[in-house]
Write a structure and sequence with these properties.
Elements: H1 16-40, H2 43-64
Helix pairs in contact: 1-2
C-alpha cells in the first residue's frame, strides 16, 4: 500500500509583493512623520504627514516594484 498524499500547503496570507510594498510604505511613513515632528514638534501634524506619505506611497511603490 502507498502512503496517503499530504494535502497541498495553504497559500500565504499575503503575497511577498504585497508585504514588501506595505513594509516599505510603513518605513516611508515613519521617516516622514519623524522628520515632520523634528521640524515643528507637532505630534498631530507628524501623524498626518506620516499617514499621508505612507498612503500615497502605496500606489507609487506598486508601480515601481513589480
Amino acid at each position: 500500500m502507498s502512503s496517503p498524499v499530504p494535502p497541498p500547503p495553504e497559500p500565504p496570507f499575503i503575497s511577498l509583493h504585497t508585504a514588501v510594498i506595505l513594509l516599505t510604505a510603513i518605513v516611508i511613513g515613519l521617516v516622514i512623520g519623524g522628520l515632520t515632528f523634528l521640524s515643528d514638534f507637532s505630534a498631530p501634524g507628524a501623524v498626518l504627514a506620516g499617514l499621508g506619505a505612507g498612503g500615497l506611497g502605496v500606489p507609487v511603490l506598486r508601480q515601481l516594484i513589480r
